[in-house]
Predict the structure.
Amino acid sequence: MIYVTGIALVQVHKRAEWLQLIHETLPFSRAEAGCIAYSMYEDEFEPNRFLFFEIWESREVLALHFQMPHVARFMSEGVPMLTQKPEITIIYPEKIEKI
């Protein structure tokens, strides 16, 4: 299992368009084989700063995700709406402890 986090800073005047794109593409990611969780949150203290939190079965499944048409659409339409390059982190946990 791997975790993916992403931070996207959206241009103020692109907010509505960004949210529409998210609502159109996010369900496809959640429905992919190997997707355990896929969520997006907005920072309550910094408007237009969005955090993605994802859990995937493996790095191989994530690689397939990046090849999907809805991801290509998101990258081609969504990334130009950002104020800077998105920050994406892949976490390979050695140990997970649930309390």
Observations:
- The mean pLDDT is 95.
- The chain has three helices and four strands.
- The CA atoms of residues 8 and 86 lie 5 Å apart.
- The longest helix spans residues 15-30.
